[in-house]
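Holo prediction — iron/sulfur cluster.
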Amino acid sequence: MLQGNKLELLQKLIGSFTKEELIWANGYIAATIGLPAASEVPAAQSVKPAVSKITVVYGTETGNSKKLAVDFASKAKKTGVQAKLVSLDQYRLNDLPKEEYLLAVISTQGEGEPPAAAKKFYDHIHQNGFKLDKLKYGVLALGDTSYPLFCKAGEDVDSQLQKLGGNRIAPLQKCDVDFEEEAETWFTRVLESLSGAETAPAEHAVVNVPPKKTGGKKVYEGTVLGNINLNDRGSNKQTHHIEIAAEGLEYEPGDALGIVPENPQELVECLLDIAKADSTKTFQHKNDFFTISDLLKKKLHISFLPERVVQKYASVVQQEIPATRIDLIDLLRIYPISSPEQFEQVIGILEPIAPRLYSIASSPEAHPGEIHLTVARDFFTINNERKTGLCSHHLSETPVDTSLHFYIHKNHQFKLPAPDKDIIMIGPGTGIAPFRSFIAERDATGATGENWLFFGDQHFETDFLYQTEIQNWVETGVLTRVNVAFSRDQQEKIYVQHRMLEHAKTLYEWLEAGAYVYVCGAKDPMSVDVEHTLIGIIRAEGRMSPEAAQEYLDGLKEQGRYLKDVY
Amino acid sequence: MSENNLSPIERVKKQSDALRGTIVESLKDEITGAIREDDQAVIKFHGMYQQDDRDRREERAEKKLDRVYTFMIRLRLPGGFLTPEQWIATHHIAGENSTGVIKITTRQTVQLHGLIKSDIKPTIQAFSEANLDSIATCGDINRNVLCSSHPKQSPVHEQVFAYADKISELLMPKTKAYYEIWLDEEKIADKKEEEDPLYENRYLPRKFKIAIAIPPNNDVDVFANDVGLIAIIKNNKLLGFNLAIGGGLSTTHGNPETYARLGTEIGFIDSEEKTLKAVYEVLTIQRDYGNRSDRKLARLKYTVDKLGVKWFKEELEKRIGFALQPPAKYEFTERRDYYGWQTNDKGIWYYTAFIENGRILDDEKCALKAALLEVAKTGYANFRFTCNQNLILSDIKPEHKEAVHAILEQFGVIKHTESASAIRKNAMACVALNTCPLALAEAQRYMPSLITKIDSLLEKHDLSEEEIIIRMTGCPNGCARSYVAEIGFVGTALGKYNMHIGGDNKGTRLNKIYKESLDEEHILAELDHLFEAYKKGRKKGQRFGDFANAL
Ligand code: SRM
Ligand SMILES: Cc1cc2nc3c(=O)[nH]c(=O)nc-3n(C[C@H](O)[C@H](O)[C@H](O)COP(=O)(O)OP(=O)(O)OC[C@H]3O[C@@H](n4cnc5c(N)ncnc54)[C@H](O)[C@@H]3O)c2cc1C
Ligand SMILES: Cc1cc2nc3c(=O)[nH]c(=O)nc-3n(C[C@H](O)[C@H](O)[C@H](O)COP(=O)(O)O)c2cc1C
Ligand code: SF4
C-alpha cells in the first residue's frame, strides 16, 4: 500500500535498526497513529529490563506533572524497574552527574518559566562548567497551547541536558492540557526502550505530533449574576466580587478559573484603520477560521508585545526597532507597514492572548451552580498615564447578565485536607479568594477542623474584603481565629507576617498539632516575607537552628502541609 | 422592684466591675470597629458614644463591609470654660483624631465625632495632658453641670460659676476605671478605694442634669433640668439658690406616658454647704426611687410626679436634715446670648461669636476654626461656651481688645456674627443625622436652609427684627430643647416634622404641638399665615410665642 519508494526506504531503515531501536520505532509509529503498540504489553513483560534503576523527577505548580510522575514510577516498578521519585525542589543537584537514567516531567508557568519548585534545578542546568556524559534522559513537558510559549520550560530542560552531554532515551514530548494519552504512550515507549539495551539515541529531538485537541479544556458558558466593588469610596483599590452562574460546573475549592480576555473593539477598529486592512478577510488560526477583526479582538495578543514579537515585526517591515515591549498600535504608527500583505504577515507573527487565572472564591457545597471571583483591577502607569490590565478591567466592567466563557484550571496541590485537620490560611488582598471558598466549604460540610485566617490590605475602613462574611464565620465559630493587618492605618506599615509574629507561639502550637498552612496572593514580596517569617517562628518557638527550621518547613512541604497559590 | 423586670442596662451597670466592663478586650477586637454591646453602655460613663455613619449603611452592606463605627467624645466642662491653652489642645486633637469639626453642644461643652476605636486612647491621653476629661458626660449619672455663661450678667458671676465645678466634683463617680483603661494607671489594689456611697454599683436609673441660672437671663434653660438652681442675688450679693426639681423635655412618639416637664421650684437654700447637700440628696432619692425597669419613665421628672412634689420635698428634708425656705423672688426676662462686644462692671471685655448649631469649622463663609486658633495663640482670651451652642471669647483686658478684634475681623467672624439674621442668631438644632443613631429626621444639616426660607417669610410680613426662638430636633428627645421654643420642630420621619408653637422667650412655658408631620412646603405655608395673623393681631410688644400661645 505504501506509495512510490516509501516501502523501499522503510525496509532500508528497518534493516539498519538494532532490536531496541526496532521496538522503540514500533512504539513510536503506533503512538503516531494513536493505536496501542502491537508489542507493548508483551514487550514490557517478556523482555527482562536491561536498566534496573531510573530516577523520575517532576516540577509542578498545580500537580499535573506530579500526578504523571507518580504514575510513571509505579508503572516502572511493575515492570521491575526501580524508580526513584523526587520533586525537583527536593532533588540533590550534585546527584545529577551520577545520574544514569533520568526522566523529567515538568510544566511551564508564568511567561514560559519553570514552576517555582523547579527553578533551582532549571537554573543549575543552565550554568555550564560540568558534564553529564553518563546521563540518559527523557523529558515530558506539560503546557497549554493557548499560551504563547508552549512548553517552553520543558524544551529548555531537554535541550540543556543534551548540551551538557546527556543522551535522550526518548524525544521530548510536549503535551497540551489534555495530556493523559500523549503522556501514556510516551512513557510506554520509554519503558520499552529501557527494557532493551544500553541506550536508544532518539533520532528526532521532538515528537512533532500536532497536539490533539480531542479532549482539550472544557469551556463553560456562564452568566454574570452580580458584580460589586468590595472596596469602599476613597480606597486606592478596586476589588470586584463577581458571581457567575453556569451549568454542570465541576470544580473544587482551590481550583482557579481561566479566562481569555478580549481586546477592546475600538482598539481593533483603530488598528484595522491604520493598517487599511479589509476587516472581513478570513484567516486560519489554530484549526479554525476567523475574520481579521475577530482574530484581533478575540485571539491575538496586541498590547505590550514581547520583544521577540517586536523583533519579528521589525523583520517583516524591514526596519530597525530597538528591543523593547510595545503595543502593536504604536508599532504600526511608528514603523508603518507598506502593504496589506505585510499586515497579513504581521497577523501571522502575533501570539495568542494568554488566559488569565482567578482563584475561585466560591464553594460547590455552599454556592451550587455558581462560581465567584475576587478580581483586583490591575492599575499601572505608563508615562504618567493610568492604565488598567486587560482582563481585570474587562471583568470589573462586566455588567450583570453578560455571558462569559471560561474554563476550570484544576489545582491538585492547593486542596483542603481531611475535614478534621486544622488549617492556617494566609491570604492578604485577593489572596482571600480561595480561603472564602475553603471556609464556605468547611462551613457547608460541617468539617470539624479549626480554621485560622490571616488577612491584610491597606485600610480597615475601605479595604476589609468580605468583612461581614468573615465576622459571621467568627460568630458561628467556623473561623476559630482571625487576624488582620492594615498596612496604612498607622505610621509604621503592618502586614500579615507581623500579625503572624504577634501570635508566633500559638501558630507554632498549631503546626506542632498538625495544622496545614496555606498562602495565597502576591508572590512578591508577600509570599516571600511570609515564608521567612514562618521559618523565623519555627526557629524561635521550636528553639532550632536556622537549618533545622528550614528542614522543618521542607518537611511540611513534603507532607503537603505547606501550600502556596501565589502569583 | 423585683430583679427580673429590671431593664437590661441595670444588669450591665452592676456587672461592669465599676464601669470597666470588657472595654479593654473590645478595643483589641481586630475585625470590627465596634465594641461589645454591653461595653457600648459602659463606655458612655466614660463620656463616649459608639455611633456609625448612617449615610453609608446601605452601600457598605452591599459591599460586604461592616458599618463605619466611630465614637463621639464629650468633654466635662462645668460651666463651659476652657483656657486658651486647652482650646489649642482641643483644636489639634480634633484635627488629628476626629472629623476636625468641634461641636459646641446645647449643654455648654464640646464634642468630637468620628473617632475610630484606636483613636480613643490617644485622644483621651491628649485631653488629659491638657487637664481635660470626659468622665460622666454621658451615662446614667450626673452630666455636665451648666451655668449662665456671660460674666457680665453679674458681679457675682464668678462666685456662682464656681458652683458648677463644685457640684460636678461632688457628683463624680468614685471608680478609677477611666484612669486605668485610658490613662494606663496602675490597677487599684484595694477595691475599697472606689467604693461609691452615692452611686453604689447601680448608678442612677437614668441620666441626670443640673443647671445654674443667673436671672434675669435663663440662657441655660434651667427648668429643662432634673435639678435647677436659680441664683438669688441682691445688691450684688449671692444670697443662695432656689431649688427646682423634675425638669426634663424628652418624649417618645406614640407613648402617652412620656411628656416634657418643667422643673418645679420647691424652695430656697441659703448656704453653699446646704446647697451642695440638697443637690446630693436629690440624687440619692432618684437613685432609690427612680424607675429602673422602664428607661422611658426613669428620669427624675417621672419619679417626682409618681411620688408627688410634696412627698419629695419631705423626703429631701429628711435626708438633708434641714427645712427648705420658701422660694425667693426673682425674675427671668430673657433667654439669650449677648452677641458682639460686651464689657462687665470691671471693664473686662467679652466677644460672643455666632456659631451656627455650634459647629466650629472653616468653610467658605467664615474661617471660624482658624480664627479661634489665632485668638487662642495670643493667650488674651478664655473660651466659654453657651447653652445656645455659641462661643464667648472672654476675660479680655482692655489693652488686648483691639488685637482680638483684628483677628476676628480678618477671618470674617465679626461679619459672620453681625450678618446673621435675628432668628438665625436665636435658633438651635441638634446633631441628628448622620451620626445620631436616634435621629428620625435631619436637624443641624437642614436647619440653616430652613431658616433662610423662614427669613424671607418674615421679611414678607416685615417682621425681620423679631427675635423669635426657633429650635429643631431630629427626634422627640429634644436635645436642642425644641419643647421650650417659640417655634419648635420635632422630627418624625425624614423630611417630616411636628410643629410646636407657643413657648415663651424665657423658657418658663412649654410649647404645644400645633401641626403634625409637616414637610417643608407645609411648614412654610403654616408659618406664612401664622406670621400674617401675628402681624395683624399682636398686642403692642407682644412676642410671637405669647401670641401663638393665646391662639
Ligand atoms: C449634642 C447634643 C445636642 C446638640 O446638638 O448639642 C445631644 C446629642 C445627643 N443626645 Fe441629647 N444631646 C444634647 C442635649 C440634650 C438635651 C438638652 C439639655 O439637656 O439641655 C436634652 C433634653 C433635656 C432632657 O434631658 O430631657 C437631651 C435629651 C436626650 C435624650 C432623651 C432623654 C430622656 O429623658 O429620654 C436622649 C436619648 C436617651 O438618653 O435615651 C439623648 C441622646 C443623645 C445622643 C447621645 C444620642 C444617643 O443617645 O446615642 C445624641 C448624640 C448625637 C451626636 O451624634 O452627637 N438626648 N439631650 C446635646 C449634648 C449636651 C451635652 O453636652 O451633654
Ligand atoms: C494561579 C493564579 C491565581 C490568580 N488569582 C487571582 C485572583 O484571585 N484575583 C486576581 O485579581 N488576580 C488573580 N491572579 C492574577 C490574574 O490572573 C491576572 O494576572 C491579573 O488580573 C492581571 O491581568 P490583566 O489582564 O488584568 O492585566 P494585563 O493586561 O495582563 O497586565 C498585567 C501587567 O502587565 C503590564 N502591562 C500590561 N499592559 C501593559 C502596557 N500596555 N504597557 C506596559 N505594561 C503593561 C503591567 O505591569 C500590568 O500590571 C491570579 C494569577 C494566577 C497565576
Ligand atoms: C500562571 C500559569 C502560566 C502558564 N504559562 C504557560 C506557558 O507559558 N506555556 C505553556 O505551555 N503552559 C503554560 N501554562 C499551562 C500549564 O503548564 C499547564 O496547566 C500544566 O498542565 C500545569 O502542570 P502542573 O500542574 O504540573 O504545573 C501556565 C499555567 C499557569 C497556571
Ligand atoms: S434630638 Fe434626637 S436626633 Fe437630635 S441629637 Fe438628640 S437624640 Fe439625636
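READOUT: The two ends of chain A are 54 Å apart (CA to CA).
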